[in-house]
Amino acid sequence: VEVGRRAIDFFLERSGQLQLQFFGGEPLLCFDTLRQLSEYARARARERGRRLGLVVVTNGTLLGREAVDFCAEQEIDVSLSLDGAAAAQDAGRRFRGGQGSFAAISPHLDYLLLRRPFTHVISVVNPDNLAYLPDSLGFLLERGFRSIALSPDYTHPRLAEMVPEFERQLGLAAERYREHLAGGGHAWVDLFDTGQNPYARERCQPG
After folding, report:
1. What pLDDT band is residue 59 in, cutting at 50, 70 and 90?
2. pLDDT value at residue 101
3. What percent of the chain has pLDDT over 70?
4. What is the 3-state secondary structure (H, E, C) of the chain?
5. Fewest CB within 10 angstroms: 53, 81, 88, 160, which?
6. CA–CA dist 203, 122 (Å, integer)
7. Rg (CA), the chain
8. Distance from C-alpha of 52 to C-alpha of 17, rounded to nearest angstrom
9. Using H for helix, E for strand and C for coil, what is the string for 51-111?
10. CA dist., res. 32 & res. 140, Å (int)
């Protein structure tokens, strides 16, 4: 906590605004530290008349009501790593014992979207879950997520063999998205709405 406070003070003294991201690993494993630093940053920014943005990047497994309520009360934006429905999520995001993580995350989603309706989803695409891409995007849109990043895993050892199928599945996903918008849905999907080249290796911002 003391290191975090010194970092917050350092940047608030040198900038008119600060965006503070809690990143991991899994930051909700250190929820008390996150709480103390969020409250400290909010108070210090208010004292100095600085603009402050707060973001927590989480895998969602510990995103219970206490954490969601705190994020809502402190106006902390939530960035959720979620690859889609159970088949896609569990293909690559498993607990140490081997069980998939979707069942631990799914019960939190409705309450999360109720309190933080503009929760951002980071959906990693790799050869293990690629076949589910259109259904994954459909699932996220139907659950009510409005801000979705489709993030190809550029470090995957089988990336090269994925490219032709990725292009095909991306086309199918785009059609699902078009149908969602034509039906009156509202959302933003980075690869479609920014004209971003899916093969442009941009840095992960926190990285």
Report:
1. very high
2. 97
3. 94
4. CHHHHHHHHHHHCCCCEEEEEECCCCHHHHHHHHHHHHHHHHHHHHHHCCEEEEEEEECCCCCCHHHHHHHHHCCEEEEEECCCCHHHHHHHCECCCCCECHHHHHHHHHHHHHHCCCCEEEEEECCCCHHHHHHHHHHHHHHCCCEEEEEECCCCCCHHHHHHHHHHHHHHHHHHHHHHHHCCCCCEEHHHHCCCCCCCCCCCCCC
5. 160
6. 14
7. 18
8. 6
9. EEEEEEEECCCCCCHHHHHHHHHCCEEEEEECCCCHHHHHHHCECCCCCECHHHHHHHHHH
10. 30
**Angle at the Cα of 121 (from 127 to 66), degrees rounded to 5?**
125
What φ, ψ does residue 204 adopt, rounded to 5°?
Answer: -65, 130
What amino acid is encoded at 56 in this protein?
V
pLDDT (0 to 100) of residue 202: 61
Residue 77 confidence (pLDDT) above 90 = yes
Range with the poorest average pLDDT among 4-8, 67-71, 82-86, 196-200: 196-200
Determine the pLDDT at residue 70. Answer: 97
Residue type, 76: I
- Mean pLDDT, the chain, whole residue set: 93
Name the one residue in this structure whose structure tokens are 């989603």. 109
